[in-house]
Design a protein that fits this description.
Elements lengths: L10 H13 L4 H32 L8 H11 L1
């Protein structure tokens, strides 16, 4: 497995992360691992969701250039 070093983290942030780890009864390193895994999974899910949304959008016809009220009136007046 790889290693990661992150420099120049504000001391207040480090303390908050330590507090979070303590609340979860985990070592700081494990808590940070979990945060990174969650962030990576969340980004992957978002990318997948956006791809599926674009595929759905491609299957949907383009909206009418006229408001529906105008179209309905035109159809009504034709009768």
């Amino acid at each position: 497995m790889g290693e990661l070093v992150i420099r120049n983290i504000d001391d207040a942030i480090i303390e908050r992360l330590k507090d979070r780890a303590a609340i979860q009864r985990q070592p700081l390193e494990q808590a940070l691992r979990n945060i990174l895994i969650e962030a990576a999974d969340s980004a992957l899910k978002k990318d997948l969701w956006l791809t599926q949304l674009e595929q759905c959008r491609a299957l949907t016809p383009a909206p009418l250039s006229q408001p529906s009220q105008v179209v309905i009136r035109a159809l009504r007046d034709e009768s």
